[in-house]
Amino acid sequence: MTAVDLGLPRRLVEFTLDGQPVSVPEGSTILDACTALGIEVPTLCWGDTLRPRNACRMCMVEVEGSRTLVPACSRRITDGMVVRTDSERTRHSRKLVLELLGSSADLSSTPEVAGWMAEYGADPARFGPPAPAEDRDERPPGEHEAPDGSVAATVHQPAKVDNDLYVRDYGKCILCYKCVDACGEQWQNSFAIAVAGRGFDARISTEFAAPLPESACVYCGNCIEVCPTGALSFKTEFDMRAEGTWDESRQRRTTTVCTYCGVGCNVTLHTQDNEIVRVTSPHDSSVGHGNLCIKGRFGWQHVQNREPRP
Ligand code: SF4
Ligand code: SF4
Fold first, then answer.
1. Is any ligand 1 atom within 6 A of the Cβ of residue 219?
2. Rounded Cα gap, residues 141 and 199, in angstroms
3. Which residues form the 4Fe-4S ferredoxin-type domain (predicted)?
4. Which ligand is nearest to the CA of 291?
5. What is the per-residue pLDDT across 273-294, written as a single tens digit (0 to 9) for each?
6. Is domain 1-130 annotated with CATH 3.10.20.740?
């Protein structure tokens, strides 16, 4: 018989969500309740395999009696709480956050953002010229004036292509810290990347900004798995996007078990035109929770080596 771990029984907490009385298990966050009830609250920095960071401020909601808006991703529900997720104040806050993010980072490969921009009427141009999607300034981080003299993005820098496996395109980074948490004590324990600099110079970096092959990185790709904006991507994806051949509508996903060792991690192979173009891992797998090692994540080239034998 298979034993299913349901965790400890939890008392129910009653509160009001957008006018409806709701009860949820004690310890649930406002975002947990919204997700369970199908109420969309946008978020970028929340990850289902990570602890909330409260970094992006997209999921702010109103709680009666609270002077400020509160982050739905981390605020736990208490008895009698009254929460509003879609008020004038929350919509205004989301509009502003989207404008600030869109004016400092290239969000062109962030899923859902275009829809949110339209829904909340966000106009990043109010905060200056949009972050450029290409032809980024070649100057090192810290010199953020764009060639036309305007103040450029915090992370205004060209994509870092320093290995054959994955690319770091920090012009798309919103500093959500998910990659740092995935690389650090929450999962990989490699601590290869962290936030460097302060204020407008804050950026994700390896130690002493070393190229990835000279850093502590072990190429598990767990940072890519959680990056919400495409700032971190497989080299295959980066190259195909540059060529204009990346097309998710033509891709198939096949989840299988990695064959390299006996751990049994689940891998999802993303294929386009019968070639593997990216590998992810299901976050609900109890084996790896979305994490892999270098072999499972990147060791698939042999599968499609169809050169005839000599
Ligand atoms: S690939 Fe793994 S070790 Fe390297 S930076 Fe990303 S999470 Fe850290
Ligand atoms: S690289 Fe991606 S995961 Fe890391 S901080 Fe930037 S947006 Fe977040």
1. yes
2. 12
3. 208-237
4. 1
5. 999 999 999 999 999 999 999 9
6. yes
- Our answer on whether the CB atom of 219 is closer than 6 Å to any ligand 2 atom is no
CATH dotted code for 247-310? 2.20.25.90
pLDDT for the residue 265: 97
Contacts of 199 (CB under 8 A, 6+ apart): none
pLDDT at 141 over 60: no
Residue 156 confidence (pLDDT): 65
Would you tell me how many other CB atoms lie within 10 Å of the CB of residue 9? 6
Environment class of 21 (CB within 10 Å of its CB; exposed 0-12, middle 13-18, buried 19+): exposed
Is 0.70 surpassed by the pTM of this model? yes
The rounded Å distance from CA 187 to ligand 1 centre is 10
Give yes or no for a contact between 113 and 100, defined as CB atoms under 8 angstroms apart. no
**CA 24 / ligand 2 centre spacing (Å):** 31
For the structural domain made of 134-244, what CATH number should be given?
3.30.70.20
